[in-house]
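Sequence in, structure out. Go.
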Amino acid sequence: MLLRRVAEHVRSQNWFAVVLDFIIVVVGVFIGIQVANWNEELAQEARDEVLLSRLGDDFAQIVDYAERKMPIRRSSTQSISELISTIRSGVDPGLTEVFQDQINAAVIAWVSFEMAATYDELVATGTLSRIRNPELRKTLNDYARQREADVFLLALAMEKRDEGIIEGAVQFRPVAGYDGPQHSVESYDWEKVKALEPHLQVILRNRTLRLDWWEREFATAKAALRLIKTELGALRSTDS
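Output:
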């Protein structure tokens, strides 16, 4: 209909009307593009909100796990140091609960913190740029690198544990534990335990390094969660 009207205006050489029709067409196309862009922007914001919400859930779980486990891991690391001091004293401590805790601290290999599944998905699909906040992207990448370093240290700790050197001096018996099957010290050879100091020094060095990475990961995970909550708050305030 509009094209027919333009043709009529051209035939009648009503150039003012032709120009007016042209402006109407251009403005209509412009408005249509703007509406389409606006709708796409709204849809993208909705997708970003879902993405951030999933990331928030991931890091809330990581932070919750770390808050529960970090005091135990700090105490466990200290127990290995105390076991070395016990050996250096040269005094057989007897099968006390404290001594058993020290031995168990030396043979356990703590698992690494979890990685956020949503972050892994973004990296795998090459869509990490969907995280618009550069500080949040950097924080997520920092956490991934810190965790990667700890996974490497965990592999070294597992290798050391699997050598079975401590088992040559200490006899264990399986018991049920909160996190699954555990082992309790049944008996030990004090002379052989005293010879464990060099091995325990290696374990302590690894555990101390891991504790440092755990502290960094914990701080970074909390920073990521804080940034995610801020971004979500900004998105939701825009929606309202």
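Check: DSSP finds seven helices and two strands in the chain. Residues 175 and 229 are 42 Å apart (CA to CA).
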